[in-house]
Structures are given as C-alpha cells and as structure tokens.
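Issue: copy button drops trailing tokens. Both records pasted manually instead:
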Amino acid sequence: MKIMKKKDIEKKLKKCGWRLERNGGNHDIWTNGDIKTPIPRHREVNERTAKSIIKKAEENKI
C-alpha cells in the first residue's frame, strides 16, 4: 500500500482554492464555498484516498 503525506494533500487543496473550514473528530473539513470534503487527520493517507480527494478538488476549483 502506498501512502501520501497529509501536508502534500493540503498544499494541493490550497492551490485549487480550497480552505480549511473546521476540525472534526478524526477529520478536517475542507471547502471551496459550495462543496465540502473530509480529510483524515493522519500524517500519512492511503494513496487511493488521497487521489480521490485531489481529484474532487481539481474538478471543483474556485
């Protein structure tokens, strides 16, 4: 299983115009204004999960 660092995911989200809305129990909630997506609060995230998050962010850029 490959992994991706959470900080790298956050950088890509910011580049696409997303921002941190709030911290949940085990996830951070990111938004682009209309759409929200949870990001697991782990140092390392499964590559499949990371790719899914990044794909959603790139499809919904501000």
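Record 2 (pasted manually too):
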Amino acid sequence: MSNDTGTLRTRALFPRPFLLCAVFAVLSTLLFAEIVPRYAPGLLRFEHVLGDVRTSYLADQLPSQHPHVAVVSITDETLKDNKVRQPIDRALLARLVDAIDAAGPKVIGIDVLLARTPPPDNEDLLIDAIKRAKAQIVLAAADARIDLPKAHFIQQEKLIAAIGRPAGYINLATERDWVIRFKALPLAGSPYPKSFAALLAAGFGIRPEESYRRIAWLREPMDRSDTFLTVPAEILLKAPDAASQNLRAGLKNKIVIIGGLFPDIDRHLTPLTARANELQPGAVIHAHIAAEMVDGRRIIQLETDSLALKLALLVVAALAFLIGWRFRHTSQGLLLGSLATVAIIAVDTFVFWRWRIILPIVLALLAWFLSEFTGRYIGRWLGARSTGRSKWFIK
C-alpha cells in the first residue's frame, strides 16, 4: 500500500496489536473450548488417540506383579467337562469360591453376571458358598445400560438379594471407537450406585477416589511377568499339589477377581492394546481399575469446560498471535511455528510423565496455528511496513 506521494506506508493503520491480540485470544478460546467440543466432537477423538499413545508408552510400570490384586481365570479349559458354556455353572462357581477362600484373600470379586441360571439349578450351592466365605464377597451387576431382557434383570436382583452381599455395576465405558478409556459413571435410579471396582477397593480397606474418570493403566512389569497374578480356575479346583500350592499362596491377603477369560466373550480394546488391535478381558480391566484405587494412582484430564483449559488456550492464542504479527514479513514465523509444535508436544509429554495430567494437545496446536496465521496476515494488513527499527510489537 502507498500514500499520496507513492512511498511505502511506514505507519501502522492499527498500532495496538496487544488489543487485537487480547480480542482474538478471547475469540479463539471461545471457539476451541466452547464451540468445537459442542458442534465438532469428532475432532476431540484425536485427543483420545494421542492420549492412548501417551498411556501405552508412559503409563505406570511396577517392578513385578501387582502386590494386591490377582485374577482367577475361567476359560474353555475350565469348562471342558461342562455341557453348557454360558452361563457358567453355579456349582462350579461355588467350588471356586470355596477354593479361593481357603487361600485367605481379603476380597473375592465375582465378575460373572448372575442374570441367568444355567441348568441344572445350582444357585443354592453358590449362595451357601458365598455366605460361608471368610473373605468379603463383591458381586458384579448389570444395569440398564447393558442390553438384557427384563426377565434377566429380575433374576439378577432376586439372586443378589438372596446372597446378601454388596453388588456394584460393571464400570467399563466403551467409546465410539470401541476403546475403553474411562470408568463408567453411576446410572441415575439404578439399584447399584457403587461400581464393582470401587466396592472391591472398599472391601480391601481403601476409600476409593472416583472423581477421576480416566483409567490409570499399568504397563507390563519390568520383569516381564503378568501385570496381575493370574491363576487358572482348574488348578484351584483340583487336589492341591506342590505346584498349585505356590499359586494358592499368592492369593493370600489380596483382592481376587473371578472372571471369564474367553477368546470371544467380554473382550475389549484398551489404550494398552489398541495399537496392536488386541483385546483385553473385562476381568483384567476391572483389575486395573481396582489396582488404581488401591494404589491411589490417577490420571487427570483437563475437560473442555475447565477454567484451567480456557486460561491455557488464552495464553497460547495470545502468544501465537503476537509472534505471527512480529514476524509477518519474514519466514521466521514458520520456523517458530515448528518450534512451537515441538515445544507443545514436549510440555504435554513431560506433564503427563511427571504429574499424570492429559493436556488438550490437539486444541492447543489448533489454537497456536490459527492464532499465528491470523496475527501474520492481520499484521500485514494493519501493521506498519517499514523495515526500520522500532518496538517489536509495533513494527
């Protein structure tokens, strides 16, 4: 642009970039914290994917197996002599409860839905075994979020009432991409206000913290053992021998979760397995949640409606706008944009590694690039075009 004499304009049309910066930062924050999550929720799926990458590489890792949680697996090998595979024979469950209780655990969690009764009717055997157990017993229950016939819910409520032990809802929240990342919240009006994992932790003597929805997963231990001691049910059901005695001893004073580990039932993608497209049994996922509560570990995720997120986006947008304005006539802005990307990723990685906080990295990157781009081109339009020395924010 030239003035009346034909010379280049040296005075800015709007010499107050800080005011423009403040206005644009507020608008950018409004866009990415309020509008995008509401009208373009699919964009936030990238946040979940990046969160999965952080988890798979940086989740907590123990030296060896978890010291307080174990799993007893019911598999096809366990049921090879049974005529019915599902639902699991209640007489077998009764024998298993007796065998595990004899090993001296603190809590036994039965991660098997009691909504159907397999023939023959052996419910009385299971009820008696649970009532005589010395360990605390916790039952897993289905609520209205699980698609079951009404008759099955009636059967479940009847059997749980007859057993007389606490029952918690299955707290696995499946996302649209079929990955389990979060604990399910209680369902309003449900007869089961507490989750299965929370009741396990409470039975262990821990007051569980349930305000953090992200599951704090455990990576494979450093010694390459299983994350949780996993004992096949058939070993506990046969006569004790030297080999099985060591496994039984490993259950003492622990939370022991009884669950089905079948190749085609109750298996889910998790952040630990999604990259390899592998599936993890529901009982093992409940073990991760119970272990998190017992250990007091947590993962904090900044929600889009949180004040901390809005302040962070405000700062990122303001800084990017000023840098775009300052370097609007040079290629240094592109270099700084690349460096900013690396810096944002590095900060995000460090914050997760150090404090287990998941930052909204996708929103931060979008805020940065949109603000820098806007600052660059608004600066070319409204800022001075002189190449002389001046204050960097007016130049």
